[in-house]
Structure formats: structure tokens, C-alpha cells
Amino acid sequence: MTNTNEPTEVSLAPVNLEPIGDCRVLRDIGAQPGVHTVEGTLVPLLSGNRIRSHVIVLHAGQYLDAHPHDTESIIYTVSGRWVFCTTEDGEPVRTVIGPNDLFHFPADVPTGFETPFDEDATILILNEGSETREEMEAGFRGAPAHLAEEAARGDAFSYRELPRDHPARVYARQVAGIDLGEV
């Protein structure tokens, strides 16, 4: 995936998009351009009338606190390992997600993504939405500034920003055998 620190200067136009009748084939999602943010590299793919798709490259050592999304999603792990965090009976729960794992989460359920391993993970997200490709690109272009504001308010986006006894770091040491907050 191509990533950039200057999202306003890079074209997010799809590479190798082939129309076939009323359909479209996007060749090689790994070659698509994206926007680098503290949440990972956001790569818009395709949008339809009621569905959209994009990739996020979750970088090693990255932490994203569980928060609700207004749409349900199906997520496929293309490569790498990462930790999915949600709640069960009001308590946080975590599980390791790996290549070829597919899962679903409903709208308004808190979900968090953590990458305690020393490798990036690439996830493909399919979710409901009626925005056009251009609207999706505009949202991705605005993400770095929005997320920088959240970081300036004190939201953590990496293991280094969490206290050593934070549940995410404790779980990371258990499943990864390392603590990227100390690296």
C-alpha cells in the first residue's frame, strides 16, 4: 500500500480500475494509494450503492481504544496479526486475529484495534454506506487532521502512550511476548 504524510497532495484515485459492463474490477489492492494517519494507513477501494470497502494497514505498536462505529462491518485480515478488542457483559475482551480470519461487528458496538506484534497487519473492511468514492476520499483526506486533534486532546494511539499496567499492554506481553511500549 502506498502511504503518505501529505494526504492533500497525493491522488487517491484508484490504480488499475477496470470497468466491465456495469461492474468494476480493482486489480491489486496492494498497489492502491492511501492516507497515513495515527490510526494506520487508510486506503479507499470501491464503493457501491449501499456498501463500501477500504483497507487499513495497522502499524506495529499501534493502539486504538475501543469505540462504537455507526455502521456494521465485516473485516477480513489480509496479512499480519493484530488484537481485536470489544466488550462482553460490560468488560473489555481481547482476541488475536490473524491472516484469513473474517469477522463481523454490528453498529454501535465498541471495537478497538491493537497491534502488539512487531509486524504490520492489513485488514479489508466492508461496511454499509452510500457515500460515493469521492466522498470516501474526502473523509480519508480529513482523517489526519481530525485524528491529530484527538491525539492533542490526549487520546492514545500507540502502546508507548499507555501506562505499563494498561490492559492492552498486559495482554500484548501475554500474546506477543514483547511490549512495543518499551521498544
How would you characterize the overall build of this protein?
The chain has helices at residues 133-152, 167-176; strands spanning 17-20, 23-26, 35-37, 40-47, 51-58, 63-68, 73-79, 82-88, 91-97, 102-105, 110-114, 121-128. The protein is of the alpha+beta class and 183 residues long. The protein has a single domain (35-176), classed as Jelly Rolls (Sandwich), CATH 2.60.120.10. The strands form 3 sheets. The protein has a 6-stranded antiparallel sheet with strand order 3-4-5-12-7-10, with helices on one face. β1 and β2 form a beta hairpin. It starts with 16 loop residues before the first strand and ends in a 7-residue tail after the last helix. Mean pLDDT is 89; it is low at 3-7.
